[in-house]
Amino acid sequence: MPNERLKSIMVSGGWTYTALAEKAGVDTKSVERWANQNRTPRLAAARLAAEALGEDMFALWPSLRRPSAARVMSPEMVAQYERRADVPVSAFVDLLGKAVERIDVLVYAAVFLHEAYPRLNDLLRERAAGGCAVRIALGDPDSENVRQRGQEEKFGHGIESRCRLALMHYRPLLGTPGVELRTHGSTLYNSLYRADDQVLVNAHVWGLNAYGAPVWHLQRTGAGTLFDTYAASFDAVWSTARPVEEN
Q1: In angstroms, what CA-CA distances link 146 with 34, 192, 237?
Q2: CB 3.0 to 4.6 Å from 194: which of 104, 148, 180, 185, for a disulfide?
Q3: What pLDDT score does 223 carry?
Q4: pTM of whole model > 0.90?
Q5: Tens-digit pLDDT profile for residues 4-40
Q6: Quick one: pLDDT at residue 180?
Q7: What are phi and psi for residue 223, nearest 5 degrees?
Q8: For residue 14, is it left (φ>0), alpha (ψ between -120 and 50) or beta?
C-alpha cells in the first residue's frame, strides 16, 4: 500500500525521488519505497525529508510517534495498601501526631478513628496548641450525596447515622483555637487525611465501603503533582462546606 499523503505532497511540490533523497541523505530507491510501499524511514532521514517538504513528520509517518513511557511509580508514593482495613490505625495517628503546620481531614464519617483511638480529640488539641491549623470536614447527613453513597454501598441509612456519630465525636473540639469543623455535601471521591506534606488517600469504589477500598500514602517531593492535586481538592470542598455551630 503506497503512502498516498507523501506521494501527493511530492507531486504538488514538484519533488522527484532523487531530489528528496538528496535532501534526506538516502538513496533514491529508499524514497521510492517510502512512497510506493509505505516504508517508514529512519528518524533522522524522516526529519530531514519532512523539513524539506514543509510537512509534519508524524503526519507523513505516524508509526514514528512513540508513546510516552508510562511511569510505573510516582516519586511521591510512599506506600500502597489494597484496603483501608490493611492500614494500621497507628499509621493515621502517627501521621497526624507529627503535623506541625496543618492537619486536613476530609471524610463522610470515618468513625473508625475515634473508635480505635479515643484520644484523637486530645491529639488534635495538642497539635492546635502547638500552632498547627486543624480543619475537619465531615459529611452532611442530610445531603443528597451522602444518602446516595449509602444506597450505593448498600448500607441504607447507615452512612447518615455514621455522619451524625462522627459529628458527635468531633463536636467537643468546637471553640478550640486553631480547630475548624465543617460539614459538606459534596460527592466524595476520596477521603483525605493530611498532615503537612503527607497525606493518606482512601479511594472510594462504587458499591464498596471505604474500609474495603485502597489507600495510598503520598508525600510532597517537588518531583510530582499528585499531592498538590489532592490538597487542592480538599480546599475546593472546604470552600463550599458549612461551619458547625456551637450549641
Answers
A1: 60, 16, 14
A2: 104
A3: 67
A4: no
A5: 999 889 999 899 999 999 999 999 999 999 999 999 9
A6: 97
A7: -110, 15
A8: left
What 8-state DSSP symbol labels residue 85? G
Q: What is the pLDDT of residue 81?
A: 92
Residues of the chain under the 70 pLDDT cut: 66-73, 154-157, 223
Gap between the Cα atoms of 55 and 23, Å rounded: 14
Query: Which stretches of the chain are DSSP H helices?
Result: 4-13, 17-24, 28-36, 43-53, 57-60, 89-97, 112-116, 120-129, 144-152, 158-170, 226-240
Asked if residues 23 and 54 have their Cβ atoms less than 8 Å apart, the reply is no
Residues contacting residue 84 through CB under 8 Å, at least 6 positions apart: 202, 210, 211, 212, 213, 214, 215
Looking up cell 450505593 gives: 152
CA distance 218 to 81: 12
State the cell numbers at 29.
530507491
Cα 158 off chain centre by: 28
Q: Which amino acid is at 159?
A: I
How far apart (Å, rounded) are the C-alpha atoms in residues 16 and 102?
Answer: 68
